[in-house]
Structure formats: structure tokens, C-alpha cells
Design goal:
By secondary structure, the protein is mainly beta. The protein folds into two domains: about 100 residues, Immunoglobulin-like (Sandwich); about 130 residues, Immunoglobulin-like, CATH 2.60.40. The protein is built from one helix and 17 strands. Strand 6 and strand 7 form a beta hairpin. About 10% of the residues lie in helices and about 50% in strands. The termini are far apart. The C terminus is likely disordered. Strands 10, 12, 13, 15, 16 and 17 form a six-stranded mixed β-sheet that branches. Strands 2, 3, 5, 6 and 7 form a five-stranded antiparallel β-sheet that branches. The radius of gyration is 33 Å and the shape is flat.
Length: about 300
Amino acid sequence: MAIHTLNLKPGKKIEHKGVKVELIGQIEVVYDRGNHHDFLLLSQELASGPGVISESTEYPFNFVSTEKSHESYNGVNVRLRYFLRFTIIRGLSANITKEQDIWVINFVSPPEVNSSIKMEVGIEECLHIEFEYGRSKYHLKDVILGKVYFLLVRIKIKYMEIALVKRESTGTAPNVYTETETLTKYEIMDGAPVRGESIPVRLFLGAFDLTPTYKNICNKFSVKYLLNLVLVDEEDRRYFKQTDINLWRKRDLEPQKLITVKDAQEVLSEGKKERRKKRKEKKKDQGETPEKEDDKNESSGSDDKVEKKEEK
């Protein structure tokens, strides 16, 4: 149950022919701003008219069991948004409207099938490599693990790098607009490899602001992610191979808990007492006399007297 509060200044009143609230799911494309696509539209009447609003009023409302199948998204050329629109309907005067955006995320179950990626690429008689990634689908905080094998090397490789690329496509063929962004890029090998060498690959996705993979949302846009493997030779020629990966959002089963400094100190103190108790029990089982541990170090209250001898 949600509540919309209409704040009205003292002494002011509004004549209306009805008050309503709408839940709208909408896709906005940059190059077609005047033609929004509404894929969700629900309306609920809050007050019937005609009537007069003479004081601040609260309007409860509820959209029960409303499926929001698409996530909210803000991209370069497209935006998918959910928002509430409150409207006071008036006769001859213009309607009074107020919009409030809401952000929607969807959690999904782990994929039942998650096969590895294994491909062989190269240049005939010059270069032959095989790269392998453990899986093809990853959640947004996952780690990509893989290896690159050099089966044939007859060109002088200077270095090798891997990049995570995001590609946003809007529109339908033949009018498709594509925006490509390299989210990260780093070297995984420096120097010339030899035949039979294996280079490990490890990429932590949690360090980046990622979205799930979106496939043809309402025939308006798609978002996909690619791993780009690039080799550069001594003449600065670049050899690359791109591989699609699928990203999905995982629900955190155990949310992180915040504790105070005092609570942390108590936990550490309890741990020390437990370890001390276990040491005493262990010595007792071994037949040794446990050492007595003083809670406080005794210090003598009297000052030490130092005798000074004069050298003659």
C-alpha cells in the first residue's frame, strides 16, 4: 500500500473533476523523443468528481500483482523507466500532473545450462591459439576465469590484452544505432610467447557498474557484453577475437550486516577468552599444570632506589 500526499497551501482550493494515479512503463529513444513506447499502463481512480480540494489530503493506492518484466535502464541512446503519474483533472483549466520515477530490478535463478567457451583461432602457418573460458553465463559479481594456449607461434608478439566491452543497439533493421563502450582493458601477457605456453585469465566483474544482458526488449533495444582478446605484434598489427557472454542478476542470499566498533571489540574479546579456555583445557588433558594468567600486571608503588657510586 502506497500513499500520495497532496500538500495544499492554507486558504487555497482546487476544483476538480477527478483525481487519478497511473503506473507507466515506458521506453524512450533519443532519436525519437516524440514517440515514446508505453509497454505498461495501469490506472486507478483516487477521487471521483466533481469536487473541491481545500486542504492537504492523503490518497492511498495499490497496484496489486503488477508484473514488471523489464528492468529499469539508462543508456546512451535509450532509457527504460517506470514512473507514477498523479493527475488532477480539471475542466477548462489545464490538468495538474506530477511524476515520480521508480527503479526496478529483477532477480533471476541461476541458469540450468552454463557451458564453457572454447575456440581455436589464428593465421594459417603463422599463429594458432586456443582460448577457453569456464562458463558462458555470469552473474554481475562473478569472476571470469580462463586460459589462452599458444599452439603455434611464428610471429613476434609484443603483448596480449583482454577487454570487457558493452554494446548497446537501438532501433530495428536497417535503422540500427550501435554504441560501443570499453569498460576495462588490461594486459595479461607482456613479451613473446613460445609454443605450448598457457596464459591465465581472471576478470572480476564486481568492480564495474554492469547491467544484465538485454535481448530485443520490446523490439526497441538490446544490450550485450563481449570479451575482446587482442594480440599486438612488434609492427603494431592487432589480432583480435570477440566472444559474447551473458550476464544475469543474482539475489544476495545473505545481505551484509553493519556492526559498531563496540560490537566488534566485544566479538574479539569473546574470541580471546575462548582461545584462552581451550589452551587451559588442552594443557589439563596433557597432564600439565596450567599457568596462571594475571589479569593485571602488578607494579610496585615505591620508587626504585639507585645507588650512585662516585668514582674517585
